[in-house]
Amino acid sequence: MNYVIWFTGLSGSGKSTIAEKLYHFLKDKGEKVEYLDGDIIRDTFPKTGFDKNSRVEHIKRIGFIASLLEKHGITVICSFISPYKNSRDYVRKICKNYKEIYISTPIEHCEKRDIKGLYKKARNKEIKNFTGISDPYQKPENPELTIDTSKESVEVSLGKVIKFLKL
Amino acid sequence: MNYVIWFTGLSGSGKSTIAEKLYHFLKDKGEKVEYLDGDIIRDTFPKTGFDKNSRVEHIKRIGFIASLLEKHGITVICSFISPYKNSRDYVRKICKNYKEIYISTPIEHCEKRDIKGLYKKARNKEIKNFTGISDPYQKPENPELTIDTSKESVEVSLGKVIKFLKL
Fold it and tell me: Which of A104, A123, A109, A136 is nearest to A18 (CA)?
């Protein structure tokens, strides 16, 4: 069975790290798999803005792509902050086997890592509408799986996803 | 071999009629095929506006979807007015086997048909930025195939596409 595996969480929460490893795990197994990540597709497929409506529409578009690929038997791994519940629920609705994985790493931990230096810029107000600082993140209420990367290694997190989805 | 088969032409030119028939032809043959049409995906995947930039970005997004599906061995049939050369060229660039089919049906003929009543509204200025009336259509310079549906039946046009692409 193929899935749409949707990673949601704050910037720096570790979602893309796990998602990428999961992609390579499935690819190496010979599965039909695609990886969609905000950072990767930004050039071709940019958000049209950072206000709530633009963010929601952006996730709807990504969800549409995921559902198309899923329909053709491809497992789609998506890694997007996707801060709004209604946009994630929309994707769940249009996909057959949507699995939401909430990377719940606390913001203090994400900000401490600050791999891309974005939190610093958001605190200095060089970046506006930054999720968790100046823009909301609506926590998933019923995700299929929750992972906190501040408490375990990437390998342990990856193992949990693989085991949970029986991949 | 799988393709991205891109139908471009004015509203009412007959592109979607041929594209749909081609989709069913391939589907019935058991091919892996997807159909993307402006009218169909409008709800999930709307243009963000009708100005030049919005139109170009919209086609870039569609092209990205087509290239993803193509990568996974699926033939993608696209039917979009896609009035700007640079956006079509962008799709050509990111796809491996892009085949542009220009439906060259003259505007007088499209307007005479006016199946959706859009030309009338455009003439009455009820619709703004209408391609061919109040917005430009840049004719393809080197399409793989050109078809004028004012001169032949749908079946003849379809046959030309099938023969040309050796489908």
Answer: A104
Which residue in chain B is spatially nearest to A31 when comparing CA positions?
B72
In terms of CA atoms, which chain A residue is nearest residue B71?
A34
What confidence tier does A115 reach under pLDDT thresholds 50, 70, 90? confident
Tell me the C-alpha distance between B21 and A79, whole Å. Answer: 36
How far apart CA A82 and CA B81 sit, in angstroms, is 31
d(CA B130, CA B121): 9
Tally Cβ neighbours within 10 Å of residue A40.
13
- List chain A residues with CB under 8 Å of B60: 44-45
ipTM: 0.87
Q: Rounded to an integer, what distance in angstroms lies between the CA atom of residue A58 and that of residue A146?
A: 24
Backbone φ and ψ of A97, nearest 5°: -120, 70
| Nearest CB to B72 within list A32, A60, A64 | A32
List residues in chain A touching B: CB distance below 8 A. 32, 34, 41, 44-46, 48, 57, 60-61, 64-65, 68-69, 72, 74, 94
Please report the domains of chain B, with CATH numbers, ordered by start residue: 4-106+136-165 (3.40.50.300)
> Which of B45, B72, B74 has its CB closest to that of A64?
B45
pLDDT in tens, B27-51: 999 999 999 998 777 777 777 777 8
Residue for token pair 């069975």: A1
CB A17 within 8 A of CB A103: no
